[in-house]
Amino acid sequence: MGTGDKNNENKLAAYIGISGPDTPKYLLANNFLAEFFRDDAQDYEKQYTYEDFLKKKIILCEEDDERKKEQLEESFNNFFRRFSGDALIVSKNRHYYFPLKPQMLRSSKTNLRHLLYCMIPGIENEDVYHDVQMRLYKYLYSGADGVSYLMSVICEEKNFDESRWLRLNKRNHEFEMLKEGNFKKICENFKEDLFRLLGHPFFIRLDFYKRYDYLATLLNFYVVQFIINKKTVGVNKGYVLCQGSSHLAKCEAYHRACVQNYAEIRFVFQTELKQFYIECLAEKQSDNHVCVVNEKDNIFVKIKENEQVEFIKFVRTVFHSSFNEEAKLSFYPSIRKVFALEGISDKTYSVEEFVMYYIDFSSARKGSTLTKISSALNTCGKDISFVFPKTRSKHKYFALSPLLLDFFVRLYLAKEMSSYAYLDNFLSFLQERYGICIQKNERMDKILKNLHVKVPFQEFRENERALIENLDEINCLIRLSDSGYVITLPEEKGEFILL
Length: 499
What we know:
The protein is of the alpha+beta class and 499 residues long. Helices cover 52% and strands 9% of the residues. The protein is built from 19 helices and 13 strands. A 4-stranded antiparallel β-sheet has the order 6-5-4-7. Strands 10-13-12 form a 3-stranded antiparallel β-sheet. A two-stranded antiparallel ribbon has the order 1-2. Strand 5 and strand 6 (307-310) form a beta hairpin. It starts with 5 loop residues before the first helix and ends in an 11-residue tail after the last strand. Mean pLDDT is 80; it is low at 40-45 and 86-90.
């Protein structure tokens, strides 16, 4: 985080809710899984090879040609080494992570994995923890297809043993805010969606990689959900004006609405960072003002009538900053400029003014701390194709891509316990549950009024048209008439019969 103090980093992360992004999206998933599984020290160094399977007669070779035998052995070892998670396979700009390996995990005091862990209601309870743990294991490695099948055949003696995955220690619930207000409902939704994904045939009958990708998508999406609702802690729910597809960028009026919505949500971190520093200062300062003394060779902060502390030492103590006291002379010109101290012997600031000047001076507003925090929205949003454009453009907006739309269709149909549903019901579900607004209706008009955003009716029509095109693209749409639509899963589409 760049604050120079680990305890303060955790305090700041808990106050704001996140410390920074885990990228790419599969690393976020791996870090989340690391809360529930640890590597087995006994088997950690074991490297299986062709010889091991040959001796156990799992593999048989009837080839007489020694050269071909060597090629077979080399080929198998190369395949199994990649399969078992030591390598990353890249194909057509897509990255596939193989089964979880300790090397793939990132250690950190507080990051998004801890946020997601704490978003599971009741996770402090041992029964809930072990329930989630077993659901995750069965979701990833049960069944008889893909990776699961190969693991069960080749490593059948390495069956899941609950005693190997004991909880090392009971984690603290860092984010108390998750138990209150609109966050409480979001956390309930997260647990419900997570359990549905881990147990419904629409997900578990897929191959390992698809299951893992959907898990990563769900985790990243709820990070975005958390951030969206940070802007609306005191009200019912946060909303995003979401266009149906990124190809509507030429639609300027709606594009502006998306940019405005995105920018307002992102702005919350700047406000919270300022409030965090104000509270840190309030713990050390009983007065509502701060007096800075400017001398020729030094700068002090007056803490009592006859007591003052050197400026850099003061901010290191109060804000836990990482500024080096020995390099204080090099900071003084910037301090004098930002705090407008040139030619002034002393100046008094309100607590809020002092904090804002400090943020400006330390570059926290543009530097590592705020960048890491606020970039979580951008990072997690882009990784699941929810935030566009994916370049470094400052003007970003939300857009429901075909990839993310496919995930929501599958999740909604799993919730409805049906292979088919009306499109209008699906759009209402997105708005009610996740605050993703695509269709114009009476409630949408109230939302727009509260957001002080005007979106012409024609923009909504264009929006719906783009969404229908996306559903067509992912083969999840059935047309009943010019205005009637049913959504379904691609694998179920051929079975549809209109009664």
